[in-house]
Design goal:
This protein has a domain at 38-102. It contains two helices and two strands, in the order E-E-H-H. It has helices spanning 22-37, 48-128, and strands at 3-8, 11-16.
């Protein structure tokens, strides 16, 4: 397993990593150093371990926010899906009713056509006589 030498708070640390995670590791270390730079005004006033503790708390709060947002998005998507499923159900039901109505109309048209044919035959016979 390769070892990555990272510099955090001017101290070198060795981190073992998988080859496919090198980019993620580098990005993470850059992000940590970037966030630590926001605490530069505390440098020398508090210990590195307290500074890292502040950062860990801040990062954990960000993770909690992300998870909360993720759950909210999942709930919103779930509710949208339920609403869409309800609409699909109603539309399918309406479609079924319209098909049934269409079939009844077709039957009525067949009956009317039959009646028209009978009337037509009667008129022809009356002229022939």
């Amino acid at each position: 397993m390769p070892v990555y030498k990272a510099l955090i708070l001017n101290k070198e640390i060795n981190v073992n990593y998988d080859e496919n995670q090198k980019e993620q590791l580098e990005e993470s270390i850059k992000e940590i150093n970037s966030k630590l730079s926001s605490y530069d005004n505390l440098s020398g006033k508090i210990s590195d371990s307290k500074l890292l503790s502040f950062l860990a708390i801040k990062l954990q709060a960000e993770l909690l926010d992300l998870n909360k947002n993720k759950k909210n998005n999942i709930n919103e998507t779930y509710n949208k899906n339920i609403n869409l499923n309800d609409k699909i159900y109603k539309l399918n039901k309406e479609n079924k009713l319209l098909k049934e109505e269409n079939e009844l109309i077709k039957l009525e048209l067949v009956k009317i056509q039959g009646q028209i044919d009978i009337i037509s035959d009667l008129i022809k016979k009356s002229y022939e006589e």
